[in-house]
C-alpha cells in the first residue's frame, strides 16, 4: 500500500500532471493516425524479430563451421544473408513511410494550431511575443509531430527486443540472464533524479529558443531605428549577454549528461565484462559451444541496449510533454466569438442602405485587468457625420478603435449599432464587416501592392484595384 500511495503522490506532482495533460493532447493525434501508427509498429516488430532471429542463426552457423553440430552450412548462410538483406529493405521502407506520415502529421498539427491561434482573442494572444509564438508553433510542434508517429512504435519495439533477448538468454542460461540485467536496479533508482533534471533542462532550452528568436526578430525588424539612435553597441551587448546565458545552460546540461554517462557507462562496462567472463567460463568448462558464446554476447548487448532504449523513453516522454504543454498553453487561450447569430446576419444584410448610429454607453477599457485606460465613457457616431477622437497619447484613441473592431471587450458598459428602424446589435468580433479600417502604421504583406489590395476582395478586377 505504501508503494501505491507513493506512486499516486508522484503522479499528483504538479509537473507530472502537466506532462500527462499534454500527452492527452498528443494521444488525440495518435488516435487520429492510429492506422499508420499500428502499421509502423508492425514494421518495427518485424525488424526486431529478424534481428533476434539473425543472432540465433549465427549461433548455428558458427557451430556448423566449428563442427559442434552437424548441419549443412549453405542453407544456414542463405537464411542469414536473406534475413540481412530483408532488414535493409525493411529499414528503407520504414524510413519512407515514417517520413511521409511524419510530414502529414506535422502539417495537420500546424494547420490546426494556426487556425486556432488566428481565432484566439487578440488581448490574450498579444500577451505573448511573436517570436515565442513562432517557436511554440515551429520547433515545439515539430517535436510533438515526431512523437505522434514514433513514440508508441519505439515503446513496442524496445520492449519486444528486451523481452525477446531476455528469454532467449534465459532459455540457455538463467544465471547469464540475471547478470545481463545487473545494471537495471541502478537505472531504476536514478530515474526520479534524471526525470527532474531532464524536465529542468528541457524547459530552459525551450525558453532560451523563444528568447533568442525574440532578440533577433526585434533587432532585424528595427534595424533602421537601432542605427538611427546609435544603439548598435547596446543591442550587440544584449545579444552577447544572451549568448553567454545560453552557453552557461549548455555547459550545465553537458556536465550533468557527462556525470550520467560515466555512471551508466561504468555500469554497462561492468555488466558487459561480467557477461563475457561468465560466458568464457562456461565455454572453458565445456557447457556451451562457440556459437552459444557468440549468441550470448549478442543477446547480452541487445538486452543492455534495449533496456537503455526503454529507459530513454522517459526523457523523450518528458521532452515531448513539455513541448506539447507550451503549444497547449496558447491553444487553450480564449477564442473569439466569430459566428454571427441570425439576428446579426439579418441586421448586417439589411443595413447597407440605411443610416446607422454607433453608441458607446458607459464603457470602461483596460488591458488584462490592469490599470484602466478610461472609465465610464460615452460616445455617439452617426452616418453622414464625421466624428473625431482627439486626445493625448495613451488616452485611449487606439484602444477605442480596438473595442469597435471587437479586438477587445469593454470591462463595463456596452457598444451597440442601431439602424433607422430601431433595430440594434451589440458589437463584437463577428460584426467587423460593418467597419472600414485604415491602420495607423504601415501594414504591407508579402506580394505586390495589388496583391495586398485584393486581400479584402480576391476577385477584384484591375480597374477596381
Question: Characteristics of this structure?
Answer:
69% helix, 15 helices, Rossmann fold, alpha+beta, single chain, 2 domains, ABC transporter transmembrane region fold, four-stranded antiparallel beta sheet, 465 residues
Distance between the termini: 75 Å
Total DSSP E strands:
4
- What number of domains? 2
Gyration radius from CA atoms, angstroms? 32 Å
CATH level-3 fold name of the largest domain: ABC transporter transmembrane region fold
Shape summary: elongated
Parts with pLDDT < 50 across at least 5 consecutive residues: none
Derived from helix and strand composition plus strand pairing, the structural class reads: alpha+beta
CATH homologous superfamily assignment of the largest domain: ABC transporter type 1, transmembrane domain
Largest sheet: 4 strands, antiparallel
Amino acid at each position: 500500500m505504501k508503494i501505491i500511495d507513493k506512486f499516486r503522490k508522484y503522479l499528483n506532482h504538479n509537473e507530472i500532471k502537466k506532462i500527462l495533460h499534454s500527452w492527452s493532447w498528443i494521444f488525440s493525434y495518435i488516435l487520429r493516425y492510429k492506422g499508420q501508427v499500428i502499421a509502423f509498429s508492425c514494421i518495427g516488430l518485424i525488424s526486431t524479430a529478424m534481428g533476434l532471429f539473425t543472432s540465433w542463426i549465427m549461433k548455428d552457423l558458427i557451430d556448423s563451421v566449428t563442427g559442434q553440430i552437424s548441419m549443412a552450412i549453405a542453407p544456414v548462410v542463405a537464411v542469414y544473408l536473406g534475413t540481412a538483406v530483408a532488414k535493409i529493405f525493411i529499414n528503407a521502407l520504414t524510413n519512407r513511410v515514417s517520413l511521409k506520415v511524419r510530414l502529414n502529421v506535422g502539417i495537420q498539427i500546424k494547420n490546426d494550431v494556426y487556425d486556432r491561434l488566428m481565432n484566439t482573442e487578440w488581448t490574450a494572444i498579444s500577451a505573448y511575443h511573436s517570436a515565442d509564438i513562432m517557436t511554440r508553433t515551429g520547433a515545439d510542434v515539430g517535436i510533438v509531430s515526431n512523437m505522434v508517429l514514433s513514440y508508441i512504435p519505439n515503446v513496442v519495439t524496445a520492449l519486444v527486443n528486451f523481452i525477446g533477448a531476455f528469454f532467449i538468454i534465459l532459455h540457455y542460461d538463467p544465471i547469464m540472464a540475471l547478470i545481463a540485467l545487473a545494471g537495471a536496479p541502478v537505472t531504476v533508482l536514478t530515474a526520479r533524479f534524471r526525470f527532474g533534471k531532464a524536465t529542468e533542462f528541457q524547459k530552459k532550452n525551450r525558453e532560451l529558443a523563444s528568447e533568442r528568436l525574440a532578440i533577433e526578430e526585434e533587432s532585424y525588424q528595427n534595424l533602421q531605428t537601432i542605427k538611427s539612435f546609435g544603439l548598435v553597441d547596446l543591442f550587440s551587448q544584449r545579444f552577447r549577454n544572451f549568448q553567454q546565458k545560453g552557453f552557461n545552460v549548455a555547459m550545465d546540461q553537458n556536465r550533468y549528461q557527462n556525470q550520467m554517462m560515466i555512471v551508466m557507462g561504468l555500469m554497462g562496462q561492468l555488466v558487459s565484462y561480467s557477461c563475457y567472463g561468465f560466458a568464457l567460463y562456461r565455454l572453458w568448462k565445456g557447457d556451451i559451444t562457440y556459437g552459444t558464446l557468440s549468441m550470448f554476447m549478442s543477446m547480452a548487448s541487445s538486452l543492455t541496449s534495449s533496456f537503455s532504449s526503454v529507459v530513454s523513453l522517459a526523457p523523450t516522454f518528458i521532452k515531448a510533454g513539455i513541448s506539447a504543454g507550451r503549444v497547449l498553453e496558447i491553444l487553450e487561450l480564449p477564442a473569439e466569438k466569430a459566428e454571427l447569430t441570425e439576428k446579426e446576419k439579418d441586421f448586417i444584410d439589411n443595413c447597407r442602405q440605411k443610416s446607422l448610429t454607433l453608441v458607446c454607453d458607459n464603457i470602461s477599457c483596460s488591458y488584462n485587468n490592469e490599470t484602466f485606460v478610461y472609465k465610464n465613457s460615452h460616445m455617439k457616431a452617426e452616418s453622414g457625420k464625421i466624428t473625431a477622437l482627439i486626445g493625448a497619447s495613451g488616452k485611449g484613441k487606439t484602444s477605442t478603435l480596438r473595442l469597435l473592431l471587437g479586438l477587445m471587450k469593454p470591462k463595463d458598459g456596452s457598444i451597440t449599432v442601431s439602424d433607422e428602424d430601431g433595430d440594434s446589435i451589440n458589437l463584437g468580433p463577428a460584426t467587423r464587416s460593418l467597419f472600414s479600417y485604415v491602420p495607423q502604421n504601415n501594414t504591407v504583406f508579402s506580394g505586390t501592392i495589388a496583391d495586398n489590395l485584393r486581400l479584402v476582395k480576391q476577385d477584384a478586377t484591375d480597374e477596381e484595384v
